[in-house]
Every structure is written in structure tokens, then in C-alpha cells.
Amino acid sequence: MIQVFERALRAAEGRDLRFWLRDDDATRPGPVLDRLLALCARHGVPPLLAVIPARLDPVLADILPPQGRVALHGWSHQNHAGPHQKKQELGPHRPAPVVLEELAQGRAVLRQTFGARALDLLVPPWNRVSPEVTAGLPGIGIRALSAYGKISARGMPVLNADIDPIDWRARRGLRHPALLWQKLALRVQVDRPVGILTHHMDHTPEVWDFLDRLMGMTAHCAWVTPDSFLPELTSFSSRSADPARA
């Protein structure tokens, strides 16, 4: 119930309570992304867009607000796994140097398009990346990973999102609201920023309503982007094991 989250927010008054929003699969402007950015602007939420560089329309840089940031969402979000394997773009199905070369190219594209708003942060498509690729990330300038669920990073900071409101296993609408509010209540008790994961192209009206309500309820809290707290991290992982599309 929403009341449990309201009580948790009251109990956390006086603490440095921070939230951040990561929206995946951004490529170009459009009505749905415009809606997300308008929602963020109305509530003072700076968005972090996980951008697919191979599909990027450079016009996206013109609509991203100055306080917004972008992260590298793979190269093309193309699945290279076999037909009976879990989807992966950055898995062991290709040589790690080939994958890293693509990621380096993607990082360069984001830097050229977004300038300082492009973070050295990788969001692996489908939340999966091989250890061999992870080991090579510092060599191409990637400083941290952001996924959802469990991910191995070999000492690299991990900024995992905590809450995904979409029910991917069932009807792809809103997850059970009582469970979402209860999970949020637990997360705000932990002394670290709470990450919200969104996929603007997949939102139902119920998901939009949930985000609007959540942002409104936390208007007195600080909504930040990962570059504001990345320097304080050495290892920063969510314990969530829930599956999510990315």
C-alpha cells in the first residue's frame, strides 16, 4: 500500500534522501520520450537516458535538458546469443576485443553528440555482460556499470537501479502497486540513492500514473544523476534479482 511508503518517507526526514531515474532504449525524439521528459521537467527530475549509439538520431541532444545525462546502452542492442540462450549483446559469443571496439565507438559517438552530458557509464543491454568484456572496460574509458539485478563487475562500481515498475513476465503493465510501494519503502531505509528504471516505449497508463505519483511524493527529496555520486563509490550494487528488459 502507498501508506507504507509515505511512512518510510516521514521516517527518513532529515536524511540525505536521493533518487535517480534511468530510462533505457533511447534513440530519437518522439511523442513518448517527449512525455517522459515533460514529466521529469514538471517534477524537477534530471533524467539519465541509456542511449543506443548505433541507432542514435543526433537531434536527441537538442531535446535533452541541460541537467540530463546519457549513458552507453551497448552499441546496437543486437542479440548475439543462440536461439535457446538468454539474449546478450555483450556476452561471450564474440571475441571481447570486437565487443570492446564497438563500445569504444559508441562512447565516442555519445561524446561527440552530447559532450559533457555523456557519462562514462555502460548500461549492458538485457543486463548482461561477459567478464572478459567487463575487464576491458577501463581501457576504453568506461568507469562504471549500471544494470538491474545481479551483475559481476570485478571491482568496477555498479550503479544498479532498484525499482522497475513494469511487469515484464506477465502483461507488461504495472507491477502490483502494493509490492512496488513496499519495495520503495525498504529502499529508502538504505543510505544510498534509490534508482528508478523506466522504458518509455513500454509504459502503459498505469505505469505513467505510478511515476507521476512517485515523483510528486518525493518532490522534497533530491533527484540526481549518477555523476553526482559516482566519485563516492567503490562498489555499489543492488541486491535485486528481479529480471528486467533493458
Automatic annotation (TrEMBL):
One of its GO terms (biological process) is carbohydrate metabolic process. This is Polysaccharide deacetylase.
